[in-house]
Amino acid sequence: MGFALVSSPFLVMVLGPFHGVMVVNFLGACSSFLILIQVFRDVEYKKILLMLIPAVVMTIPGAWVASKLGGPWLSVGIAAMVILALLSSFMVRNLRAAQSKGLAVGAGAISGFMSVTAGVSGPAIAGYAVASRWPQAKFAISVQLYFFVLAIASLLAKGGMPELHWTQWIGCLVAMVLGILLGNYLAPKIPDKFSRAFVIIVAFSGAITLMINGLTQALA
């Protein structure tokens, strides 16, 4: 989830709102797949499917909105969704316990729409996980299947792969792998509260910058 929240605003500024989000979806799918192949036996498939089905369905209207809105106003919308997602991350810990299927379906639908429009599908289902008291270890394993399938569905809803030069593809993949390796190295050395604060600051900075750029272009 941190990957999407941090990378989405910056990739959108570099590649544009449509293709930037597609790159976030693709790299997110790659990252989740690398984890999924190691933990697929422990995935809680019934819980995931309850959220995944409405999420995949909502990629269709989400892709339509992304294609029709386009341009700077889509950038503004993406920035707003990233900021709302970040703010919601502070609120989920205060949610009351809830086990209803309707909550799972609603969280999946919101997550699917945000995945294809802004590349940030995690906060909505994280909120459900907290509210339903889903054990963190089991959620972290199961959600890899959710992210992988939803990212693929988001790409298909938008018509396939983003259009990048082969050097850009290599640059993105190398950067992602280096980031994972660096994160694994630094994780034991940096207190959790500092790493979380760093991610939030970078994500907020990117989203605010993207919103300013989008508004400037839209109102020019």
Describe this structure in words.
This protein is mainly α. It has one domain (2-219). Helices cover 83% and strands 0% of the residues. The chain has helices at 2-15, 17-39, 45-69, 71-91, 101-118, 122-131, 136-157, 166-186, 192-219. It starts with a helix and ends with a helix. The model has no long low-confidence stretch (mean pLDDT 85). It is a multi-pass membrane protein. The chain crosses the membrane at residues 12-36, 48-67, 73-92, 104-131, 137-157, 169-188, 194-215. It is found in: Cell membrane; Membrane.
Short description:
It is a multi-pass membrane protein. InterPro entries: TM_pro_TauE-like. This protein is 83% helix and 0% strand.
Characterize the overall form. Answer: globular
Regions with pLDDT < 50 over 5+ consecutive residues?
Answer: none
Order of helices and strands: HHHHHHHHH
Put simply, the count of helices is 9
User: Can you give the mean pLDDT?
Assistant: 85
Spatial gap, N to C terminus: 33 Å
Largest sheet: none
Q: Which structural class matches the secondary elements? A: mainly alpha
Secondary-structure blueprint:
Blueprint: H1 2-15, H2 17-39, H3 45-69, H4 71-91, H5 101-118, H6 122-131, H7 136-157, H8 166-186, H9 192-219
Helix pairs in contact: 1-2, 1-4, 1-9, 2-5, 2-7, 3-5, 3-7, 4-6, 4-9, 5-6
Key words describing this protein structure:
220 residues, mainly alpha, 9 helices, 83% helix, globular
